[in-house]
Amino acid sequence: MKKILVIGGGAAGIMAAISAAEHGGKVTLLEKMPSVGRKLLITGKGRCNITNNCDLDGLIQNMPGNGSFLYSAFSQFTNHDVREFFHRHGLLTKVERGGRVFPITDKAADVVATLRLALRKLQVSVVTEHPVKEFTVSDGKISKVTTIANSEYGADAFILATGGASYPGTGSSGDGYRLASALGHTIIPLRPSLVPLEVEEEWIKDLQGLSLKNIRAAIFADGKPVASEFGEMLFTHFGVSGPVILSLSEHVSEFLAAQNGNKSDITLEINLKPALTAEVLDQRIQRDFEKFIRKRMKNALNDLLPVKMIDVMIDLAHIDPEKPVHQLKKSERLRLVHQLQHVCLTVKGARPLSEAVVTAGGVSTKEINSKTMNSKLISNLYFAGEVIDVNGYTGGYNLQAAFSTGYTAGLHSVD
Ligand SMILES: Cc1cc2nc3c(=O)[nH]c(=O)nc-3n(C[C@H](O)[C@H](O)[C@H](O)COP(=O)(O)OP(=O)(O)OC[C@H]3O[C@@H](n4cnc5c(N)ncnc54)[C@H](O)[C@@H]3O)c2cc1C
Q1: Does 196-351 carry CATH code 1.10.8.50?
Q2: pTM (predicted TM-score)
Q3: Where are the chain's structural domains?
Q4: Nearest atom in ligand 1 to 13's CA
């Protein structure tokens, strides 16, 4: 029976341990924190978006970071396999908007409990509060790992699944990059992905906490369109967040990394009424103004905008808030129409890596066999999850990548 040591008890490490044990390995899982699956508990706002129900091409297209590297892993353990795994272990799943798959109970804790139960059933030895600090290599193979407390663990094969460097409070503080680098692996520079954006405009502070639905947001770099998204966003004290912004942030982060210190102007443009042409929006506003004809401007937009936004939009359109509606000039009204469809924000940058949902960069995919997750440098080393230079958009793609690479690494580690 082959002895397998998995380092890191997140989505990828747990699935790697389960897969290796299911295929006949004697598995030990070393986890740094007091319990496994801590990041999983906060995924999908506590509901855990396990995977996405799209086809294989869809999975790959939604992994802007080295999606094609994952082709084989996604095929060996598909999104249907992930759902089937949870169903088989007693946790049913459901599909929501955009193909997002969640546990039927809407509880990430149930996902973690199901994975823990599977580890127990397969007699995986889970050792918590044991952060690995180094590998010992002899004759081109790893012979053992040593933990911070100087405990040593030997095995026939080792699976490194220590996650990225974001949300370090969950345990993923980037240890795997240091460990892999010490073994000679190339680490592609890390950068935040799926991260809130900071903006310069002071007025956003007045909108803090306001969430907008059905908006279109677009990113422009030096005036050129880069990407746009439709959906929901949120104003914060430092800038903007929410699903649309997190998706766009991948392009901003990539763009900033490629800039090499050169300063570019990055603008975020929000269309508050993307379903309407400017003409139709103008007609709509004229109808509102007929209704509110005896009011002042500051009290005439309640049917059109959230209350928090009214003063800001009137100000940005250079309209006197005290002006009676019936005195508003056509040119002023058209300026307001334009403003509502072109709310421009100057992007200062992305929030730090620690606040990113996902870490882009990591162990170079060029040095990993995509069919087995085996290191091309060390024969008995395998990689799984976010420690690898792969990253996806929101929608369940990152966890699918963790589960697929984990399953693949576990399966081939016992070969
Ligand atoms: C707020 C938030 C919400 C998210 N929501 C979703 C979602 O709904 N759907 C989705 O697809 N993705 C989501 N993600 C992304 C997803 O959680 C990650 O991509 C995924 O958890 C990566 O799995 P992993 O096993 O590679 O890493 P992790 O889950 O980070 O696990 C790594 C584990 O390794 C352990 N470890 C680290 N160093 C050592 C060491 N030296 N020794 C031993 N153990 C170590 C850590 O303690 C940790 O338990 C979300 C991320 C965040 C931060």
Answers
A1: yes
A2: 0.93
A3: 3-192+358-413, 196-351
A4: 25
State how far the Cα of 174 lies from the Cα of 158, in Å rounded to an integer: 18
Is ligand 1 within 6 A of the CB of residue 375? no
Q: Name the packing angle between helices 108-121 and 11-22 (round to 10°).
A: 30
Ligand 1 atom nearest 44 alpha carbon = 8
Structure confidence at residue 255 as a pLDDT band (50, 70, 90)? confident
Output the CA 16–ligand 1 centroid distance in Å.
Answer: 14
**Given ligand 1 and candidates 39, 53, 250, which is best to mutate, with the most ligand atoms within 8 Å of its CB?**
39
Specify the CATH class of 3-192+358-413 in words.
alpha beta
d(CA 223, CA 166): 31
SS3 state of residue 388? strand
Alpha-carbon span 284 to 364, nearest angstrom: 53
Q: How far is the CA of 156 from the centre of ligand 1 (A)?
A: 25
* Torsion of Cα atoms, 360 then 363 then 366 then 370, to 10°: -90
Count of other CB atoms within 10 angstroms of residue 105 = 15
Q: Tens digits of per-residue pLDDT, 74-120?
A: 999 999 999 999 999 999 999 999 999 999 999 999 999 999 999 99
Contact 62 CB / ligand 1 (< 6 Å): no
Nearest atom in ligand 1 to the alpha carbon of residue 45 is 3
Of 57, 114, 120, 40, the residue nearest 84 (C-alpha): 114
How many helices (H) and strands (E) in the chain?
Answer: 12, 19
What's the rounded mean pLDDT across residues 207-222? 96
Tell whether ligand 1 has an atom less than 6 A from the beta carbon of residue 304: no
CB of residue 171 inside a 6 A radius of ligand 1 = yes
pLDDT exceeds 80 at position 259: no
| For helices 330-341 and 278-291, angle between their N-to-C axes, nearest 10 degrees | 120
Please state, for a pLDDT cut of 70, what percent of the chain lies above it: 99
pLDDT tens, 110-163?
999 999 999 999 999 999 999 999 999 998 899 999 999 999 999 999 999 999
Residue 261, pLDDT score:
63
Q: Determine whether the shortest distance from the Cβ of 6 to ligand 1 is under 6 A.
A: no
